[in-house]
Amino acid sequence: GVKLGSLAGKGYKIPDNFNDPLDDLSEY
């Protein structure tokens, strides 16, 4: 799975519904 800490460290915003497709992260 994807580590939330890793995403946060890279400056990605974690959506409230993390169950959403990771493609949403690419928008930020």
Describe this structure in words.
With 28 residues, the protein is mostly helical. It has one domain. 21% of the residues lie in helices and 0% in strands. The mean pLDDT is 60.
Key terms for this structure?
single chain, elongated, 28 residues
Query: What radius of gyration results from the CA coordinates?
Result: 8 Å
Largest sheet features: none
Distance N to C terminus: 20 Å
Helix fraction, binned, reads 10-25%
Give the oligomer, counting copies of the same chain as homo and different chains as hetero. single chain
Overall residue-averaged pLDDT value:
60
Per DSSP, the total helix count is: 1
Give start-end ranges of low-pLDDT stretches: none
